[in-house]
Amino acid sequence: MDFGPGVEAGEVVVGDLKIAYVCRPASDKTLLFIHGNSGSKAAFYQQFAGFANTEYTLIALDLPGHGGSSNSHHPEQYYNFPALALLVKRFCDALNVKSPVVVGWSLGGHVVLEMAGRGFALAGAMICGTPPITTGMDDFNAAFLPSEAMAVTLNPAPTSAELTTYIQGLYGSLTPVPTQFHQDAARMDGAVRAHIGAHWGTGEQGCDQKTVAAGWHKPLAVVHGDADAFVSKDYLTSITWRSLWRDQIQFLPGVGHAPFLEAPVVFNELLNSFAADVLR
Q1: Is the sign of the CA dihedral 114, 117, 119, 123 positive or negative?
Q2: Are 193 and 154 in contact (CB under 8 A)?
Q3: Are strands 8-14 and 17-24 parallel, antiparallel or unpaired?
């Protein structure tokens, strides 16, 4: 994908993992983007284009097992929310990124909530396609909508047809879905799906994300497509939010699971306003 002028590609070594990223440097005011299951940093190319002439440094990384980052040789160790949250913190430390606004999509949003719950230095956060859930499986059926696409989320080895269905669910109203996003889904290490689900289901580790939402004192923006194929709108509105930006969830009509791609102009306006409020 074309990220526009002034964007640099790089790689950071975290433990035994190589983490690929792109960056458009500008200032110490940083927007950090974390993609979802089966995606990559390429998902945020519209944000790099939309923020090309702003004061913000933009960084998007590939989580391990995705995009240009390496697969983990120890999936049981790295493929879970707490480990991914710590990995992103170490990634930020390596790049000397301090107190960013973090934008998390789907899986990336769960990582953001884990970071917030562990007290990592964030200026604020924006999540989309991410319902805060407790550890274990108690909230799973209420938070997520049953569908053919949803059934692939934790499937380590989907068929080609199942993966196509999943991609259609991921990118909602986006027509056509760029080839890059099909390639990202096919490239993903299937062990990520298997271990994230198994780890969360044990309920033994990880922050209670509903408690994080109810207690985190930093600004938290929630942007949600009301045609999302995965996440229940009713569940989101049932959550207690302590510091919800503008005191309401930003619902985008006719938009699916990836609002930053399906409605990039509206999304970028919201993100720009949120960043201006938070990074003063």
Answers
A1: positive
A2: yes
A3: antiparallel
Burial of 5 (0-12, 13-18, 19+ CB in 10 A): exposed
33 phi and psi angles, rounded to 5 deg = -110, 130
Radius of gyration (Cα) for the chain, nearest Å? 17
Residue in the structure block whose two tokens are 């274990």:
136
* Strand duo 30-34 + 57-61: pairing: parallel
Amino acid at 219: P
Tokens standing for 50?
């939309």
Please classify residue 173 by burial: count the beta carbons closer than 10 Å to its beta carbon, then call 0-12 exposed, 13-18 middle and 19+ buried: middle
Cβ neighbours for 38, distance < 8 A, ≥ 6 positions apart: 66, 163, 166, 167, 170, 184, 185, 188
What CA–CA distance (Å, rounded) separates 106 from 48? 19
pLDDT digits (tens, 9 = 90+) for 88-122: 999 999 999 999 999 999 999 999 999 999 999 99
- 252 is written with which tokens? 């985008």
Phi and psi torsions of 61, nearest 5°: -115, 160
pTM over 0.90: yes
Strand partners, 224: 251
> Given the DSSP bridges, would you call strands 220-225 and 101-105 parallel, antiparallel or unpaired?
unpaired
- Residue among 261, 270, 262 nearest 223 (CA): 270
C-alpha span between 43 and 108 (Å, rounded): 12
Q: How far is CA 25 from CA 15, 57, 171, 213, in A?
A: 25, 5, 28, 30
Tally the residues of the chain.
Answer: 280
Per-residue pLDDT reduced to its tens digit, 161-189: 999 999 999 998 899 999 999 999 999 99
Q: List the one residue out of 267, 69, 253, 257 whose CA is nearest residue 177.
A: 257
